[in-house]
Specification:
The protein is mostly helical and 209 residues long. The protein is 52% helix and 5% strand. α1 crosses α3 (76-93) and α3 packs parallel to α9 (180-205). It has helices spanning 14-34, 49-52, 76-93, 110-119, 123-126, 129-133, 146-156, 167-176, 180-205; strands at 2-4, 39-43, 104-106.
């Protein structure tokens, strides 16, 4: 059974996380008794607590005219503060409840999407929201924040062109330089590096998770 899990519960403080764990353990116990293997899904931006519970993280810089709450897909702070903080609880519980066979990520970013709908005036821009706010799929132009840009320029040995902090300016410059596709490859590699670290930390708790 794959199930989206507890979007409406905060988990920023230790007390909030303990309540989140207690609720999850009820599901684990019931699943164990019924013999149903489960993969609880954690939201990327399904609800506001997915991001509000993270103290600080790099927000994505996109082509949209306002900078919203969704993170840079490769933001280690976000992965650790949102996904990993909850997934570590799952990994620990999986030692007592082996019916938990992993943690899933729900990329359908309803909260991020609704945030932009409330802050964007252009219908054209609103039509682009869904392809941008999810960490995978849709437009490959997910983010060109300072970390994304500087990491890429350093890897390619390119001098900093000192571009404005504007997604359109930066993506257009990269396209004119013929570097757009190379950027996406670099960003994918950065994301894979972060996810490899996440997986290792979870499997350090339970190698079978």
């Amino acid at each position: 059974l794959m199930a989206a899990w507890a979007w409406g519960m905060p988990f920023k403080t230790d007390e909030e996380l303990a309540k989140w764990r207690a609720r999850l353990e009820e599901l684990c116990a019931a699943s164990q008794a019924a013999g149903i293997r489960i993969i609880p899904y954690l939201g990327w931006g399904c609800g506001r607590y997915d991001c509000d519970s993270v103290p600080a993280y790099t927000r994505a810089l996109t082509r949209l005219s306002v900078r919203g709450p969704q993170p840079c897909p490769a933001s280690r702070e976000y992965w650790e503060g949102s996904f990993l903080r909850r997934a570590m609880v799952m990994a620990e519980l999986s030692k007592t409840y082996p019916v938990i066979v992993g943690a899933g990520l729900d990329p359908e970013s309803y909260y991020f999407s609704s945030w932009y709908k409330n802050h964007l005036k252009s219908e054209e821009e609103r039509g682009k929201i869904w392809s941008i706010v999810m960490p995978i799929g849709g437009s490959p132009e997910k983010c060109i924040c300072d970390e994304c840009l500087q990491s890429f320029l350093k890897a390619k040995g390119i001098a900093d062109p000192h571009l404005a902090e504007d997604g359109n300016v930066r993506f257009d410059w990269l396209a004119k330089q013929g570097l757009r596709d190379e950027l996406f490859v670099h960003q994918q590699a950065r994301l894979e590096g972060v996810l490899t670290s996440v997986r290792k930390r979870l499997q350090a708790v339970n190698p079978d998770f």
